[in-house]
Amino acid sequence: MKALLLLLTTLLPLAALGAGSRELTALVRTDDNVPVLGPVTLTDLVSETGFDGEFFKIVKGKDDEAIGFDGDAQLTLRAATAYHHLTLARNYFVKKLGSAYTASLPKMVIRLDLTNKFSKLGHFANDALDPQYNNALTVPAGAGLASRGIRPWDIEIWVRPSKKIHISEITFHGSEAAEFKSLMKSYRDQSRVQSLSQFLSQTIVSATDSESTIDPFNTNNVIRVIGSSVLLEAAYHFYDPLTKLFQRKWYWLDTAMVPEIIYHEFAHAALSDHLELTHSTAVIEGMADFFAGQIADSPKLATHIKAFNTYNGKDAKNKQQFKDVFETSDYANSDFVFGLLWELEKIVGEDRGEAFMFELRKSLTTNSSIRGQLIEGILKTCKKLCGDPFTDKLRIHRALHSRGI
Ligand SMILES: [Zn+2]
Description:
This protein is of the alpha/beta class. The protein folds into two domains: 17-159, no CATH class; 165-402, no CATH class. Helices cover 42% and strands 10% of the residues. A hairpin with a 3-residue loop joins strand 5 (118-119) and strand 6. The longest helix is centred in the first third of the chain and has 24 residues, at 73-96. The radius of gyration is 21 Å and the shape is globular. It starts with a helix and ends with a helix.
């Protein structure tokens, strides 16, 4: 009783101030996964005036202050959308998967419209150094550099401003694809010869400056851009109806307004007790995409994932089989890993699939190879969590074998 009274007296002043929750407009998905603007209730707020909560603070660029509720309407909409979907993602990991690590994460700062690249020592790289657009990334915590006045920071999510690129600036292996759909098809057809990050650096991410020479092998430019091409295409596919602006000639991506990308970025943070945020690999991207797909919980998205992942896609049969040579080439196999995990969930049973994948992270590191540690981890996790480990392991072996692993 004493504890309850104490709790009540601590909570009452907050409630009296009206902080805690607030109704605002954000982008949400309909049951058919179509984006619409609608009312959402933002929870866990600790500020009455801006997007500052117990778990998330949404700021603009390098600011310390949270974005206010009453500022620029477009910025408020983007901040509300990010805050709302981050809360859904956090609730998923904390409440549904029981992740103590996620619950213990310090308040996360979300930086909208930040173009700086990440610097391990300096937090923000020099303003002039290769400004970034149309993507998002999750950055690891840093110790700061007291001698240069750089304060320590915790895990943050950076959302780049969107920037329009005309189709004429997009060159893709001579492809004259006029629509994003056919661009993505070209990517998938060639996904064994180049990675998604290379593809992106030639298209929406770095093609923003037609003067710059794009080094297709400099994948550091676009570390942890967005997971697989499947999720990226889905993001475009389901984003378009709202903006009606992609049409045929212009492409860009406002990642604050794409729930699946917000889920993907938060998943990186939630999985970072085992999958460190040092760099991007097929395994870390595939895992983040798996959980992004689960949080989205959309049958329509699931159909899309099933049809287009390179592991199990309709074009996947022969040419898309796993090849060792692509094992370490960053994004080359993130579609493959995503598809593999997505299908594996059906084998272990959808009722235990999410717990299975969450347990799987314990057997993995960011540097895990697909053929090595990922497969070993899957079998080890099956021994622990499968309903019928003996039969299920045989089914997993058979499924992997049929895909060339
Ligand atoms: Zn990622």
